[in-house]
Amino acid sequence: MATQVERSSATREKVIAATIACLVERGYPGVTIAAVAERAGVSRGAVTHQYPDKARLVVEVVEEIGRRRTDEVLAMLEDIPAGPRRVEVGLDALWDKFNDPIYTAALEVYVAARTDPKLHPRVLQLEEDLDEAIRAVIRAMAGPVRSPRRLEVRADVLLNTMRGLALMYATGAPTEPLDRAWAQTRADARDALLALAR
């Protein structure tokens, strides 16, 4: 028989999956505690016990999944020696994360935060935390470098380019030019990160 901790963890995972699905399918305005509870197959009380309001629900879910995704990439990189393969694997893994439904869900939250005074400060902190997690992945990809400052600049350029391209993919823009842009971005980032290596 499952323990209370195991049941609580299972409920939380259902709520997380349901929240992401609701954000992707309905957008932020269509996400409610009731809709998430119904989708997850749990009571409203089970949702509000862990997430007392909608803003906290969506921000904490996006943050949790974003953290998990970057942790997965970091764990993958640990087994690969520094060098070209490590950079390439890291770039491809990061790009996969930007093409995950979590990014579409995050976009819905970011757009809603523009005009929602309750959501706005939480999303600013979320963005800061996720950006730092992605920078940590890029630092891990590069390994020891001659100029940490130049690496941070390169990381910010790569992060914002991936974010912009992923936004265009998410909105249904024609993929051929986006594929070309990503291929060039990947090649440029690979060369830049390897050039910074000690």
Automatic annotation (TrEMBL):
PROSITE patterns linked to this entry: HTH_TETR_2
Annotated DNA-binding residue span(s): 32-51
Keyword Phosphoprotein among UniProt keywords: no
Keyword DNA-binding attributed: yes
Domain of life where this protein originates: Bacteria
Record InterPro entries: Homeodomain-like_sf, HTH-type_TetR-like_transc_reg, HTH_TetR, Tet_transcr_reg_TetR-rel_C_sf
PANTHER family on file: HTH-TYPE TRANSCRIPTIONAL REGULATOR PKSA (PTHR30055:SF226), HTH-TYPE TRANSCRIPTIONAL REGULATOR RUTR (PTHR30055)
Protein's name in the database: TetR/AcrR family transcriptional regulator
Native organism: Sporichthya brevicatena
